Amino acid sequence: MARIGKDGRVLVVGAAGMLGRAVREAAVARGARVDAVDIASNPAEGIDAFDMTDAADLDRVAQGNWSVVINCAAWTDVDGAEANEEAATLLNGTAVGELARACKRGGAVCVHYSTDYVFDGGGTEPYRVDHPIDPVNAYGRSKAVGERLVRESGCEHVLLRTSWLYGAWGQNFVLTMMNLMRSKDELKVVDDQRGRPSSVRQLARTTLALLDAGARGTYHGCDGGECTWYGLASAIRDEIGAGTVVHPCTSDAFPRPAKRPAYSVMDLTETVKVTGELVAWRDELRSVIEQASRLETGAEA
Length: 301
Ligand SMILES: NC(=O)c1ccc[n+]([C@@H]2O[C@H](COP(=O)([O-])OP(=O)(O)OC[C@H]3O[C@@H](n4cnc5c(N)ncnc54)[C@H](OP(=O)(O)O)[C@@H]3O)[C@@H](O)[C@H]2O)c1
Hints:
By secondary structure, this protein is of the alpha/beta class. It has a domain at about 10-170 and about 200-225 and about 265-275: NAD(P)-binding Rossmann-like Domain (Rossmann fold, 3-Layer(aba) Sandwich). Helices cover about 40% and strands about 20% of the residues. The chain is built from 10 helices and 13 strands. The chain has helices spanning about 20-30, 55-65, 80-85, 85-105, 140-155, 175-185, 200-210, 230-240, 270-275, 280-295; strands spanning about 10-15, 35-40, 45-50, 70, 110-115, 155-160, 165, 185-190, 195, 200, 215-220, 225-230, 245-250. The strands form 4 sheets. The chain has a 7-stranded parallel beta sheet, sandwiched between helices. The chain has a two-stranded parallel ribbon with strand order 7-10. A two-stranded parallel ribbon has the order 8-13. Helix 1 links the parallel strand 1 (about 10-15) and strand 2. It is globular. Bound molecules: NADP nicotinamide-adenine-dinucleotide phosphate. NADP nicotinamide-adenine-dinucleotide phosphate binds near residues 17, 20, 40, 76 and 115.
């Protein structure tokens, strides 16, 4: 069993990203030997340069001694993918498949993240892990290719779909709202898209718990509970004590290049069987906002 702990070496790809940082911190906190790579090197953060689309870099994975490779790298610009589907698919699809094949050659377990956007959004009850996928936008299609190629590679893998990612760093809805609410008296937020927010810290914990248990295959990794973006924005406002009035609106008020699924709540049953109950999004949100405040004031590095 590939456990993340003192006995295994772990490679985190995309370690400078929002999720990558959380996964790396969680693995290091366990005492694991973690190598961190991203498209740009950052010596101060201990991050080496690594391009997932580069065959020589992928060879390093095949020849490395990593017991687990955790891929947090991706094309995450959902609207940008509409006009650049080929480039998005190269990173989220083809390169992911090559990384999975390199893991197979090197004997590493491959952890990869996918998205609620592989579902069509027309559901009325949480999508189970084996619900048929049918993406409605280019980003979702590119991630669906990645899912397929990971499975076809024959590598040992954990494929974790997540949604509405947020954390105390990186670009995400929670930090954007916190900033806007400092200067805006009123905000309109869409109330016709329903999903599960997912804190990167909880997703990192879920990842390690699945690996600890020797889980393989497809899982969903989100916070407990569900809401709309309007519900999430209202909770952020209440949590930071801002006076901003938040108005619900429909998606028509914010036309965007990529269509968004209306209903993207993913079923967590299979994950909870392994991890136990997941922390509810409202509680995770509170702790992420507290952490963001500590980072802002320099109380946490
Ligand atoms: N964000 C969400 O709401 C969300 C929702 C559902 C699923 N997901 C999935 O969750 C995972 C993590 O997302 P995230 O939001 O943490 O992503 P992120 O913050 O955008 O981080 C991705 C990282 O990958 C790097 N990268 C880009 N191209 C690369 C390449 N060729 N080789 C190596 N690294 C490369 C990026 O560098 P640059 O920044 O320099 O390009 C960035 O540091 C992804 O699989 C994403 O699809 C995210």
